[in-house]
Amino acid sequence: MNTKKEIVDNWLPRYTGMKLEEFGDYVLLCNFGQYLEMFAKRYDVEVKGIGKPMSCATAGEISIVNFGIGSPSAATIVDLLTAVKPKGVLFLGKCGGVKHVANIGSFILPIAAIRGEGTSDDYMPPEVPALPAFALQKAISTTIRDNGFDYWTGTVYTTNRRVWEHDVGFKEYLKKTRAIAVDMETATIFVASFANEIPCGALLLVSDQPMLSEGIKTADSDRIVDREYVERHLNIGIEALEQLINNGDTIKHLHF
């Protein structure tokens, strides 16, 4: 295999257990199996790739991929998706609230992400901003409001660090960035998608408040978030993509 196309055409099915022709034109990305299970149950479709690095499922024009956690995995799935050239990719991720307004269960619709993870430096120079596709974010905004909910917007800080909640210095740095939330994938997905000419957006769910000792995620608190908020998060993501599909809207306005 001498070209990127040869590699990704072989690797996407190898990683996901799903044939290229089985992928829909629109893709939901998630970090957790519950999203995938809910999607499969909603549409009564088979989960492919169980036991592989990235399990997935497809219903009509929408596929969902659970790519795992962290920026390297996020970059990998974006690269692999070039094999099917999706018309739109939407990341449904969880994040930690940095500002006090980002309460657990809140939606964050990021207008940009701060590239603190390093992985995205392999795709674009560090001075290039990590931005989503505006048309996709607009569809998500409309869907949230149509469902009677609200959301916060702003920048998200993306880091490669997983255990930092004890680090007072890092917390002070986060405050200085003016980020509303912190996660491990958003900036990577935005930059890698732009580099690969894939229109991409994100809708994040605040799952913890790591700036507070009592707000750090635990097994018990995570179960509460899964029970009370994840289904709503998934449904809005699906409806936003369906809006684009039904309206025939194009997302890719930029000349990459």
Can you characterise this structure?
The chain has 256 residues and is an alpha/beta fold. It has a single domain (4-247), classed as Nucleoside phosphorylase domain (Rossmann fold, 3-Layer(aba) Sandwich). Helix content is 38%, strand content 21%. The chain contains 8 helices and 8 strands. The chain has helices at 4-16, 33-43, 71-81, 134-146, 168-177, 186-195, 219-228, 230-247, and strands at 26-30, 55-59, 62-66, 88-97, 107-116, 152-159, 181-183, 200-208. The protein has a 5-stranded mixed beta barrel, surrounded by 4 helices. Helix 4 (134-146) packs across helix 8. The protein is globular, with a radius of gyration of 17 Å.
List the helices and strands and how they pair.
Elements: H1 4-16, E1 26-30, H2 33-43, E2 55-59, E3 62-66, H3 71-81, E4 88-97, E5 107-116, H4 134-146, E6 152-159, H5 168-177, E7 181-183, H6 186-195, E8 200-208, H7 219-228, H8 230-247
Parallel strand pairs: 1-3, 1-4, 4-8, 5-6, 6-7
Antiparallel strand pairs: 2-3, 4-7, 5-8
